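Table 4 source record.
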Amino acid sequence: MLEQQAAQAMAAAVHELTTNAVKYGELSTPEGRVSLEWSCDPAQRLTFRWTETGGPAVGLPTRQGFGARVMERIIQGQLNGELKFDWREEGLACEITIGT
């Protein structure tokens, strides 16, 4: 179970990832796919993984967008979590780790 603040933060992060995937990433084409995985370790830390494949080639962004800044503030600032973006050519991979 996630506390209310963590659940709201995760919902905002997934919304941001989805919006960007629809506009620019894998969900902007019919062939694109998103894989979601999550796990909880013995220390009660939730790790959520978002992996995009099958869409247009992805490159390292030239600037940090508003959504990425918001995600950083929520995950790292409010929840003291970790946020990692991997801009692979085949699609974005994002990993979020927070305490539950």
